[in-house]
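Suppose a colleague, Dr. K., hands you the sequence of a protein chain of 93 amino acids and asks what its three-dimensional shape might be. Before reaching for any lab equipment, you can write down a predicted structure in C-alpha cell form. Begin with the sequence itself:
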Amino acid sequence: MDPKYSAKDGRFWHNEGNYFLPDDEPLMIFRGKDELAVKMCEVYIETLKSQPQTEIIVSHIETATERLAAFKSFHMQYPERVGVCCSVSQKAA
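The predicted structure, expressed as C-alpha cells, is then:
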C-alpha cells in the first residue's frame, strides 16, 4: 500500500493530513505487477520536476520516487508476476 494513504471505513485516508479522499474524486491504483507502473511514476516525477519547487511539490517528488523504487524492486524480485494488468496469470500471486 502507498505509505501516504490507508484504507479504513471503506475510504482512502491521507495519513499525514488525516482526511479522506472524496467519493466523487476519480482514483486510479497501479499495482506492483503492472509493468506500466514504472513508466507512469517516471512521467509523474518528470512532470513534477518541471513545476515550481514548492515544499508540496518536493514532497510529491520524494514520495513518488519511493514508489518508483518499490515498483522496480518488485519487478526485479518477481519478474514472473510482471505484465500488463490482468494478462499475467494469477497462479504466481
